[in-house]
Amino acid sequence: MMITNDPDKETGGMNLDILASEYSKLGLIEILGPVGVAPFTHQMEKEPTDAFVRGVMIRAGRAGFYYWLKQAGDTLESADPDFNLSPVRKKIATGLAHFCGILTARKRYNSLFRNHEESWELELSGNEGSQVPPLECDFISGFLQEFAGWAGMGRLYQVRVKAGAGNGQDNCSIIIKKQPVE
Asked: Does the model's pTM come out above 0.90?
């Protein structure tokens, strides 16, 4: 499988826009090494629901967050000038709403951010009848988990992906518990 930057390119039923992003490429190279990326993408095409493949995509999302932070992290301060001085929960909620806006602005997803009493939820649905592939949800969940840990001063936050959430089977929700893991 070749990863391209063409968002209309379909490979094995998966649109690879998020996987083709610079952050996912860098994240995959960081965790697999330059030589390991090609065999992994072949395995990803062959077995996209394999637990190992999904776990690597979560880890690539976590690694990709730091590349995003270096290149575009200042956008958090433009979203909220008091971002760095805000309490942890407000920082996380502000950042999640910001990422929701970024994903929607790319016109790839419709996204909805919900601030529940015990969790934050980012619901993604495909635009114009497209679906949100599970591997993209896994990458984004890893990215958001690393963001929550960074904004939460190094604490680990439990994240889970709920596929088929919301209004259809082509959606996914990423749920982050507000209480960090002790």
From this structure: no
